[in-house]
Write a structure and sequence with these properties.
Distance between the termini: 40 Å
Number of domains: 2
Strand order of the largest sheet: 3-5-4
Helix content: 40-55%
Radius of gyration: 20 Å
CATH superfamily of the largest domain: Winged helix-like DNA-binding domain superfamily/Winged helix DNA-binding domain
Oligomer: single chain
CATH architecture of the largest domain: Orthogonal Bundle
Number of strands: 5
Order of helices and strands: HHHEEHHEHHEEHH
CATH topology of the largest domain: Arc Repressor Mutant, subunit A
Protein backbone atom coordinates (compact mmCIF):
# COMPACT_ATOMS: atom_id res chain seq x y z
CA UNK A 1 0.00 0.00 0.00
CA UNK A 2 1.32 3.45 -0.92
CA UNK A 3 2.39 5.69 1.99
CA UNK A 4 -0.21 8.36 1.19
CA UNK A 5 -2.98 5.74 1.08
CA UNK A 6 -1.83 4.31 4.41
CA UNK A 7 -2.20 7.74 6.00
CA UNK A 8 -5.68 8.13 4.51
CA UNK A 9 -6.73 4.70 5.78
CA UNK A 10 -5.58 5.60 9.29
CA UNK A 11 -7.51 8.86 9.06
CA UNK A 12 -10.64 7.01 7.89
CA UNK A 13 -10.37 4.52 10.77
CA UNK A 14 -10.09 7.37 13.25
CA UNK A 15 -13.12 9.14 11.80
CA UNK A 16 -15.43 6.13 11.99
CA UNK A 17 -14.39 4.90 15.44
CA UNK A 18 -16.44 5.93 18.46
CA UNK A 19 -13.69 4.84 20.85
CA UNK A 20 -9.91 5.30 20.98
CA UNK A 21 -8.06 2.97 18.61
CA UNK A 22 -4.94 1.19 19.85
CA UNK A 23 -1.85 0.47 17.77
CA UNK A 24 -3.02 -3.14 17.62
CA UNK A 25 -6.37 -2.00 16.18
CA UNK A 26 -4.52 -0.21 13.38
CA UNK A 27 -2.20 -3.17 12.80
CA UNK A 28 -5.20 -5.46 12.43
CA UNK A 29 -6.82 -3.22 9.83
CA UNK A 30 -3.53 -2.55 8.00
CA UNK A 31 -2.37 -6.17 7.74
CA UNK A 32 0.32 -5.94 10.39
CA UNK A 33 1.87 -2.58 9.51
CA UNK A 34 4.67 -1.89 12.00
CA UNK A 35 4.05 0.33 15.01
CA UNK A 36 6.55 3.03 14.08
CA UNK A 37 4.97 3.55 10.65
CA UNK A 38 1.52 3.87 12.25
CA UNK A 39 2.76 6.46 14.76
CA UNK A 40 4.54 8.43 12.03
CA UNK A 41 1.35 8.63 9.98
CA UNK A 42 -0.68 9.72 13.00
CA UNK A 43 1.87 12.45 13.69
CA UNK A 44 1.70 13.61 10.05
CA UNK A 45 -2.08 13.89 10.34
CA UNK A 46 -1.70 15.89 13.56
CA UNK A 47 0.70 18.28 11.86
CA UNK A 48 -1.64 18.73 8.89
CA UNK A 49 -4.63 19.47 11.13
CA UNK A 50 -2.60 22.01 13.12
CA UNK A 51 -1.17 23.68 10.00
CA UNK A 52 -4.61 23.94 8.41
CA UNK A 53 -6.14 25.09 11.72
CA UNK A 54 -8.80 22.41 11.56
CA UNK A 55 -11.57 22.27 14.17
CA UNK A 56 -10.36 18.89 15.40
CA UNK A 57 -7.18 17.07 16.38
CA UNK A 58 -5.96 13.61 17.34
CA UNK A 59 -5.72 12.95 21.07
CA UNK A 60 -4.18 10.07 22.99
CA UNK A 61 -6.87 8.73 25.30
CA UNK A 62 -7.13 5.55 27.35
CA UNK A 63 -4.16 3.93 25.63
CA UNK A 64 -5.31 4.72 22.09
CA UNK A 65 -5.91 7.49 19.56
CA UNK A 66 -9.14 9.33 18.81
CA UNK A 67 -10.21 12.34 16.76
CA UNK A 68 -11.62 15.01 19.07
CA UNK A 69 -13.02 18.47 18.41
CA UNK A 70 -11.11 21.41 19.80
CA UNK A 71 -12.55 22.84 23.05
CA UNK A 72 -13.45 26.27 21.60
CA UNK A 73 -16.18 24.68 19.50
CA UNK A 74 -17.96 23.11 22.47
CA UNK A 75 -20.71 25.81 22.74
CA UNK A 76 -21.94 25.16 19.18
CA UNK A 77 -21.59 21.39 19.37
CA UNK A 78 -23.52 21.42 22.63
CA UNK A 79 -26.48 23.11 20.94
CA UNK A 80 -26.78 20.29 18.42
CA UNK A 81 -25.81 17.28 20.50
CA UNK A 82 -27.27 17.25 23.99
CA UNK A 83 -25.05 14.85 25.87
CA UNK A 84 -26.18 13.51 29.21
CA UNK A 85 -23.39 14.47 31.56
CA UNK A 86 -22.43 12.24 34.42
CA UNK A 87 -23.23 14.12 37.60
CA UNK A 88 -21.16 13.16 40.62
CA UNK A 89 -22.27 13.36 44.19
CA UNK A 90 -19.61 14.26 46.76
CA UNK A 91 -19.32 10.66 48.01
CA UNK A 92 -19.05 9.30 44.45
CA UNK A 93 -16.30 11.72 43.47
CA UNK A 94 -14.43 11.12 46.72
CA UNK A 95 -14.57 7.35 46.27
CA UNK A 96 -13.55 7.61 42.61
CA UNK A 97 -10.55 9.76 43.52
CA UNK A 98 -9.42 7.27 46.16
CA UNK A 99 -9.68 4.36 43.72
CA UNK A 100 -7.90 6.28 40.94
CA UNK A 101 -4.89 7.10 43.11
CA UNK A 102 -4.66 3.95 45.22
CA UNK A 103 -5.91 1.14 42.97
CA UNK A 104 -6.36 -1.75 43.21
CA UNK A 105 -8.36 -1.39 46.43
CA UNK A 106 -10.86 -3.53 48.27
CA UNK A 107 -14.14 -2.18 49.60
CA UNK A 108 -12.88 -2.36 53.18
CA UNK A 109 -9.72 -0.41 52.29
CA UNK A 110 -11.82 2.33 50.70
CA UNK A 111 -14.09 2.43 53.74
CA UNK A 112 -11.08 2.77 56.05
CA UNK A 113 -10.05 5.92 54.16
CA UNK A 114 -13.55 7.39 53.87
CA UNK A 115 -14.83 6.23 57.23
CA UNK A 116 -18.25 5.30 55.84
CA UNK A 117 -19.96 2.44 54.01
CA UNK A 118 -19.32 2.61 50.24
CA UNK A 119 -21.40 -0.31 48.97
CA UNK A 120 -23.97 1.92 47.22
CA UNK A 121 -21.34 4.26 45.81
CA UNK A 122 -19.34 1.37 44.35
CA UNK A 123 -22.47 0.05 42.65
CA UNK A 124 -23.13 3.49 41.13
CA UNK A 125 -19.56 3.77 39.80
CA UNK A 126 -19.72 0.24 38.41
CA UNK A 127 -23.04 0.98 36.69
CA UNK A 128 -21.49 4.08 35.09
CA UNK A 129 -18.52 1.98 33.92
CA UNK A 130 -16.04 4.27 35.69
CA UNK A 131 -14.63 1.46 37.82
CA UNK A 132 -14.37 -2.30 37.35
CA UNK A 133 -13.53 -5.40 39.36
CA UNK A 134 -9.79 -5.96 39.01
CA UNK A 135 -9.56 -9.30 40.76
CA UNK A 136 -9.24 -10.62 44.28
CA UNK A 137 -6.70 -9.72 46.94
CA UNK A 138 -4.44 -12.41 48.31
CA UNK A 139 -5.84 -12.04 51.82
CA UNK A 140 -8.29 -13.88 54.09
CA UNK A 141 -11.66 -14.10 52.37
CA UNK A 142 -10.11 -13.17 48.98
CA UNK A 143 -11.89 -9.77 48.87
CA UNK A 144 -12.69 -8.19 45.49
CA UNK A 145 -10.45 -5.33 44.36
CA UNK A 146 -11.52 -2.35 42.26
CA UNK A 147 -9.79 -0.13 39.71
CA UNK A 148 -10.67 2.50 37.11
CA UNK A 149 -11.69 1.77 33.51
CA UNK A 150 -10.85 3.12 30.06
CA UNK A 151 -14.17 4.98 30.26
CA UNK A 152 -12.79 6.82 33.29
CA UNK A 153 -9.72 7.88 31.28
CA UNK A 154 -11.87 9.02 28.35
CA UNK A 155 -14.24 10.99 30.59
CA UNK A 156 -11.38 12.88 32.18
CA UNK A 157 -9.32 13.25 28.99
CA UNK A 158 -6.37 11.17 30.19
CA UNK A 159 -3.94 9.14 28.11
CA UNK A 160 -3.21 6.99 31.15
CA UNK A 161 -3.18 7.02 34.94
CA UNK A 162 0.30 8.54 34.89
CA UNK A 163 -1.36 11.80 33.81
CA UNK A 164 -3.32 12.13 37.04
CA UNK A 165 -2.23 15.20 39.03
CA UNK A 166 0.44 14.25 41.54
CA UNK A 167 -0.79 14.16 45.10
CA UNK A 168 1.06 13.63 48.31
CA UNK A 169 -0.10 10.74 50.45
CA UNK A 170 -3.58 11.63 51.60
CA UNK A 171 -6.10 10.62 54.22
CA UNK A 172 -9.84 10.96 54.36
CA UNK A 173 -9.34 14.54 55.67
CA UNK A 174 -7.61 15.50 52.41
CA UNK A 175 -10.62 14.28 50.43
CA UNK A 176 -13.37 15.90 52.49
CA UNK A 177 -15.82 16.80 49.74
CA UNK A 178 -18.32 18.04 52.33
CA UNK A 179 -16.19 21.20 52.47
CA UNK A 180 -16.71 22.33 48.87
CA UNK A 181 -13.97 20.07 47.47
CA UNK A 182 -11.41 22.73 48.36
CA UNK A 183 -8.85 20.45 50.00
CA UNK A 184 -8.27 18.33 46.92
CA UNK A 185 -8.04 21.42 44.70
CA UNK A 186 -5.53 23.07 47.02
CA UNK A 187 -3.47 19.91 47.30
CA UNK A 188 -3.30 19.49 43.53
CA UNK A 189 -2.23 23.12 43.04
CA UNK A 190 0.43 22.83 45.75
CA UNK A 191 1.77 19.68 44.13
CA UNK A 192 1.98 21.46 40.75
CA UNK A 193 3.90 24.34 42.35
CA UNK A 194 6.38 21.93 43.92
CA UNK A 195 6.90 20.16 40.60
CA UNK A 196 7.44 23.45 38.75
CA UNK A 197 9.95 24.71 41.32
CA UNK A 198 11.92 21.47 41.49
CA UNK A 199 15.57 21.74 40.31
CA UNK A 200 16.24 20.51 36.80
CA UNK A 201 12.62 20.82 35.69
CA UNK A 202 11.09 23.31 33.35
CA UNK A 203 7.69 24.81 33.93
CA UNK A 204 5.04 24.11 31.32
Amino acid sequence: MAKEMTKKVIEALLFVSEKPLTIEDFRQALDGLDEEAIKQNIEKLREEYAKEQRSFSIAELAGGYQIVTNPEFAPWIGKLFRRDEIKFSGPSLETLAIIAYKQPLTRSEIERIRGVNVEGVLKTLLDKNLIKIRGRKDAPGRPITYGTTDEFLQRFGLKGLEQLPKLRDFTEHDLDFDKENEKVKIKVEQSKEVDEDAPGQQSA
